[in-house]
C-alpha cells in the first residue's frame, strides 16, 4: 500500500513539474521579472545584500494596493527571487507637518558588531525638499525593520551668502539628502553616498560604529567629504576593484534616462575623477533607458560586477522595470557596460 501511495505521489509531482515550466536561469533586462510565486518583483531603486550565502534584494515596494515602503526578496542564484514580504511598512514611516513621508532607493547593510541589519533610504515628502536620510534597523534580514530616525547626516559648509534663498533649510538642518547608497569597506567601516545640496554636489560620509548615523564628530575631509562638486549627479552606485573606489552615477533629469558616468578614486572620500560613460553601443547615451541604483559583485568573483538599474515608467511607476547587466573590466582597469537582451552568469562576460 505504501508503495502505491509513493507511486501516485511521484506521478502527481511529475505531472506538476511537466505543466509548470522551470524558470529560465537567465537575466532578461527590462522584461517584467516574476518572483517564485509568479508575481511581479517590486524592488525599485534597490540594492542587494549578501548575508550567510543568501542574497537579499531590497527596494521601493510599488506593489499596487500594497502597504510596503520597502520590499525584501531572497535568492541563492540571483535569477529566482522569493518574496519575503514587506521589510518596512509605509505606516511605520514618520509623519511631519501633517505629511507622511515616503521612501526611495532603500539599501541594507549588516553590522557584525551589533548583529543588526541597518536600512538607509532617501526619506521624502511631496515637493522633494524634505530630503532626509531615513534609518531603520532589524534583527532579521527580512525585517520587519523598525524606524529609528530621519536626519541630514552632515552640515552644508558652503558660504550661505551664496545660498539665498535656502528653501530646504540647509543652513540649519545640513545638506539635503536624496539619491543614496551605502557601502561597507573591507575594514568594516561603512559609508553613505548621497546627492546633497539640491543634487548639485555628491556627499560621502562615514557612518558611526552602529551604522545608524554619521561618524561623530563629523569633520569635513576626515569623516565626510563633498565629491563630484557642483557636477549635478544622482543615482550613486559605488563599488571597489583592485583597491580603487568606483562610483557610477546618473545625471539629474527626474525620471527620464540620461548618460551615466563612472568616476574613480584612491580614497573613498575622494577626490574622484571622471572616467566618462561606461556604456557602449545603441542607447549608450541614455544608459539603455535606465538609471543606476546598485553595483553588485558577481558571485564567486572579485573581477566581475553586475550593474543594476531602473527603467522608470513615470506614467505608471509600478510598471517600472529592473535592468541587470554585466559590467566588465577592460584591460586598462576601466569598466564597460553593454546591453544584453538575455544573459547569464556564465556567458555574460564574453
Ligand atoms: C530621480 C531619482 O533618481 C529618483 O530616485 C526619483 O527621486 C526621481 N528623480 C524623482 O523625480
Set out the fold topology.
Elements: H1 2-19, E1 44-51, E2 54-60, E3 68-75, E4 82-89, E5 95-96, E6 99-100, E7 102-111, E8 116-124, E9 132-138, E10 146-151, H2 170-173, E11 180-184, E12 190-196, E13 201-206, E14 224-227, E15 233-241, E16 244-251, E17 261-265, E18 273-274, E19 291-297, E20 305-311, E21 321-329, E22 335-337
Antiparallel strand pairs: 1-2, 2-3, 3-4, 5-6, 7-8, 8-9, 9-10, 11-12, 12-13, 13-14, 15-16, 16-17, 17-18, 19-20, 20-21, 21-22
The structure holds (2R,3S,4R,5S)-2-(hydroxymethyl)piperidine-3,4,5-triol (DGJ).
Molecular shape: globular
Strand order of the largest sheet: 1-2-3-4
For the termini, the CA-CA separation is 54 Å
Bound molecules: (2R,3S,4R,5S)-2-(hydroxymethyl)piperidine-3,4,5-triol
Which radius of gyration do the C-alpha atoms yield? Answer: 21 Å
For this structure, the CATH topology is Tachylectin-2, Chain A
Mean pLDDT: 93
Strand content: 35-45%
Our count of helices gives 2
Protein model, in words:
Mean pLDDT is 93; it is low at 1-22. With 350 residues, the chain is mainly β. It has two helices and 22 strands. The chain starts with a helix and ends in a 13-residue tail after the last strand. The radius of gyration is 21 Å and the shape is globular. 6% of the residues lie in helices and 40% in strands. The strands form six sheets. It has a four-stranded antiparallel sheet with strand order 1-2-3-4, with no helix packed on it. A four-stranded antiparallel sheet has the order 7-8-9-10, with no helix packed on it. Strands 11-12-13-14 form a four-stranded antiparallel sheet, with no helix packed on it. The protein has helices spanning 2-19, 170-173, and strands at 44-51, 54-60, 68-75, 82-89, 95-96, 99-100, 102-111, 116-124, 132-138, 146-151, 180-184, 190-196, 201-206, 224-227, 233-241, 244-251, 261-265, 273-274, 291-297, 305-311, 321-329, 335-337. A hairpin with a 6-residue loop joins strand 3 (68-75) and strand 4. (2R,3S,4R,5S)-2-(hydroxymethyl)piperidine-3,4,5-triol (DGJ) is lined by residues 45, 104-105, 179, 234-235, 254-255, 291.
Amino acid at each position: 500500500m505504501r508503495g502505491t501511495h509513493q507511486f501516485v505521489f511521484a506521478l502527481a509531482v511529475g505531472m506538476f513539474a511537466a505543466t509548470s515550466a522551470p524558470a529560465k536561469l537567465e537575466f532578461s533586462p527590462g522584461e517584467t521579472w516574476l518572483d517564485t510565486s509568479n508575481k511581479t518583483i517590486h524592488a525599485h531603486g534597490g540594492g542587494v545584500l549578501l548575508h550567510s550565502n543568501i542574497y537579499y534584494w531590497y527596494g521601493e515596494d510599488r506593489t499596487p494596493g500594497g502597504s510596503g515602503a520597502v520590499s525584501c526578496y531572497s535568492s541563492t542564484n540571483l535569477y529566482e527571487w522569493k518574496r519575503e514580504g514587506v521589510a518596512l511598512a509605509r505606516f511605520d514611516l514618520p509623519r511631519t507637518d501633517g505629511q507622511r513621508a515616503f521612501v526611495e532607493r532603500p539599501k541594507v547593510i549588516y553590522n557584525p558588531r551589533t548583529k543588526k541589519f541597518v536600512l538607509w533610504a532617501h526619506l521624502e515628502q511631496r515637493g522633494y525638499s524634505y530630503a532626509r536620510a531615513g534609518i531603520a534597523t532589524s534583527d532579521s534580514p527580512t525585517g520587519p525593520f523598525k524606524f529609528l530616525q530621519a536626519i541630514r547626516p552632515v552640515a552644508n559648509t558652503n558660504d550661505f551668502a551664496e545660498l539665498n534663498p535656502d528653501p530646504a533649510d540647509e543652513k540649519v538642518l545640513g545638506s539635503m539628502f536624496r539619491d543614496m547608497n551605502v557601502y561597507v569597506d573591507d575594514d568594516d567601516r561603512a559609508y553613505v553616498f548621497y546627492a546633497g545640496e539640491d543634487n548639485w554636489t555628491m556627499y560621502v560620509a562615514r557612518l558611526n560604529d552602529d551604522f545608524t548615523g554619521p561618524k561623530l564628530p563629523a569633520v569635513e575631509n576626515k569623516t565626510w567629504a563633498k565629491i563630484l562638486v557642483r557636477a549635478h549627479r544622482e543615482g550613486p552606485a559605488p563599488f571597489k576593484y583592485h583597491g580603487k573606489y568606483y562610483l557610477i552615477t546618473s545625471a539629474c533629469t527626474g525620471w527620464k534616462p540620461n548618460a551615466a558616468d563612472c568616476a574613480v578614486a584612491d580614497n573613498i572620500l575622494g577626490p574622484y575623477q571622471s572616467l566618462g560613460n561606461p556604456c557602449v553601443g545603441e542607447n549608450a547615451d541614455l544608459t539603455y533607458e535606465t538609471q543606476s541604483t546598485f553595483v553588485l559583485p558577481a558571485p564567486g568573483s572579485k573581477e566581475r560586477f553586475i550593474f543594476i538599474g531602473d527603467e522608470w515608467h513615470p506614467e505608471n511607476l509600478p510598471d517600472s522595470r529592473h535592468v541587470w547587466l554585466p559590467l566588465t573590466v577592460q584591460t586598462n582597469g576601466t569598466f564597460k557596460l553593454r546591453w544584453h537582451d538575455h544573459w547569464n552568469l556564465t556567458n555574460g562576460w564574453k
